[in-house]
Amino acid sequence: MRLFLSTDTGKCCSSGQCVAALPEIFDQDDTDGRVVLLVEHAPSALSRELYEAVDCCPAGAITVREEAESIPEVTREETRGQ
Ligand code: SF4
């Protein structure tokens, strides 16, 4: 499983809690302080920290969605000759 992240800069009030909690995931825009998402996907190992960041955001501007890891589809053509 991996985690898909999104942020709503329209809701963000530039408080910076997410950056303090996870600076490898979140940053703030230099001009208005609104959240900047550094990565869209995160490993499930960071789930506890990410959900804490969601909870501490005063604007409800962070969304985390769990996604199953996709398994690459192997076509019949790719299996020929093996
Ligand atoms: S914690 Fe929420 S309101 Fe504060 S900077 Fe991050 S996304 Fe914006």
Task: Tell me about this structure.
With 82 residues, the chain is α+β, with helices and mostly antiparallel strands. The chain has one domain: Alpha-Beta Plaits, CATH 3.30.70.20. Helix content is 23%, strand content 26%. A hairpin with a 6-residue loop joins strand 2 (26-28) and strand 3. The chain is elongated and about 55 Å long. The mean pLDDT is 90. Residues 7, 12-18, 26, 28, 35, 57-59, 61-62 line the site of iron/sulfur cluster.
- So how many helices? 3
Strands of the widest sheet, in order across it, are: 4-1-5
The main β sheet shows up as:
3 strands, antiparallel
Helical coverage, percent range = 10-25%
The CATH architecture assignment turns out to be: 2-Layer Sandwich
Q: What class would the helix/strand composition place it in?
A: alpha+beta
Low-confidence stretches: none
What value does the Rg take, in angstroms? 17 Å
Present as ligands are:
iron/sulfur cluster
Q: Total domains, how many?
A: 1
CATH fold title: Alpha-Beta Plaits
Overall average pLDDT: 90
Gross morphology is elongated
The tally of beta strands, per DSSP, is 5
CATH class, please?
A: Alpha Beta
- SSE string, helices as H and strands as E: EHEEEHEH
Distance between the termini: 30 Å
* Beta fraction: 25-35%
